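User: Quick sanity check before I run a bigger batch. Here is a single chain. Can you write out its predicted 3D structure?
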Amino acid sequence: MPNNAELGAVLRDLRKSRRLTLAVVARQAGCAESLVSYVESGRRQLHPWLAAELDDIYRTGGVIAALMRGTDHGVNGRAGGVSQSDTLIVELPEGGVSMPLSRRELLASLGVGIAAGQLLAKFEKALETIPLGDDTLESFEDAYAGFQVAARSLPPSSLIDGLTGNVAILDGLRRRTTGHTRQAFTRMQARYAESLSWLSEEAGDVTAAMYWIDRASQWGQAADWHDISAYGFVRRSMVAISFASDGYRAVDNASVVLSMSGASPRIQGLAVKQMAFGYALAGDENASNRALDRAMKLLEKPVREGDALLGQRSVVDDDLFTIFRTTCDIYLGRGQRVVPILQPRLASLSASSVRTATITRAKLVRAFANAGQPYEAAQLSLTALDDIDRIGSLSARSELRRALPVLRQWHGREDVKAVIRRLMSTA
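Assistant: Done. Predicted structure follows.
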């Protein structure tokens, strides 16, 4: 379970995103305003009854209760399995009972579309009491939004089981539907799978990341949502950079999107952006520049319905080119023109998403190193490493590791030695 301070910060973000005051929340929850304040500040533990009330008030579909049950397996962005247990506890909606499932059986059944095993059979029987319709689907939409808020600052291992449990419920409900309703439930499954792929990547589990990328593509195709299938190759490109720093592999995966019929301009733009990153990582500046220019032209085109659900949700559109350009510059070994752009953004990013701010801080480390400023690079590295240990972010850790060859030219400095020791200890 997240600690009191971490969970409190998520609750504060949820309340503010709903534009509710402490007084209004306390009145609706039937408790003292000071209790809500203490829970948000981390000074008091969140109790199950209040978690249930807050889920109702914030319309988060059981996310807050799921976070209370979430476990931190100590992954912290390192390579290896996300979960150490084969048992997944799933709580049915509307105050339903909690049911144990075999994680292996569930993941196998999701992959082939066939329910197997006694636990899954009992689970599907229990799902027959849940009504099908827009209200149920809306509750999963609300839960999805709540998980997205929590993912900005909590470790992936605190969220993965809750998201997986919702996928299991969605899959069982989908089997009972037909026509438009079935398509809507399948699309929601695909969205959950895309988030699980990203969280698994952040947790350092490449096998799980690829599994969920495949499920998102599978369910997207089944729901006639072809853009999420195309986006799967964008995600593969991201994984190639995060896990292997392989620029040309990133280009190869992203370029597949350009040959897929029906891929929207936005998804093509995100793919070409990945190609720009890949070429920059491989040191091909001209190809990177051409790809980035093409990406921005594609991203300027009107967004097709459903496209906005995929990619770059934490970055304001007006900032896209700046963020993309600075990332390419960092990969190409530049620093002087990157630092004045990224450094002023850290404060606002930290306020909106600790995870995005941590990844940006890690990129800025290499920019300072490229600019010949070892003190700033080392101090920022240590801050980023503290955040990575707290929230778990393979993306940020990968950015720091890419800065190592540059940092090692100052290997005699004590602060640089401390950074190298910490990074190498988690290799």
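The longest strand covers residues 87-91.

User: Great, the batch can go ahead then.
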